[in-house]
Specification:
alpha/beta; Rossmann fold
Amino acid sequence: MIHCLHGAVGNFQAWETLSQDLDESVNSLDLWRFFDHSTPNLFETGQLICKGAGLGDVVLGYSMGGRIALHALIAEPEKWRAAIIVSAHPGLIIGQEERREKDREWARISKENWTSFLHQWNNQEIFLSSPEELHQADIKDNEFVSESFLHWSLGRQNDLRSDLPKITCPVLWITGSHDPKFTALAEEATSLLPNSEHLIISGSGHRVPWQRPKEFSASVKKFLKRNNSF
């Protein structure tokens, strides 16, 4: 089973194409449901992901979902057969308060004016070389999206670099060639992981799975085939 975690303004349906291309069952998690009855932080959310997974499962996370996936891997490293991390951040070394303030503003806008929020979100520099995700969050989930900016903010995440060596399962870290910031972060992160590889997919920006879906699916399938035993 592969547990797929979407991004900050994503939707569980974003993984439909991937689920059709892989030979394994895909569990596309709706991360907004974690806010139905509580407001878990990143570490607690990682633990909840572990709770819902079986021994020898795989976790795949994109961007914010990748950060949550890292927390799940660190929480129970012995549980996972393999992991795929896409365009994710291991944690800020400086600037946490500035990021928290920025995410508080995103939380406010997403709650007050969804249309304006989506326009501003998709016009950030990091996304200019990428198309919009095929399945973005809907206005019905705007309050949950707002909560995620408060509780899952990169500014509230610990710097995970010192914890990365605890992740012993095979890790495929994917970034796009047009996403230099996250490609550099991936290079740094994979140098700290004991069993990892960094794949740069040509012609893609931050949203690799949707900009280069065939290449992305083929890379994930090849990686999992090499790591099909636990």
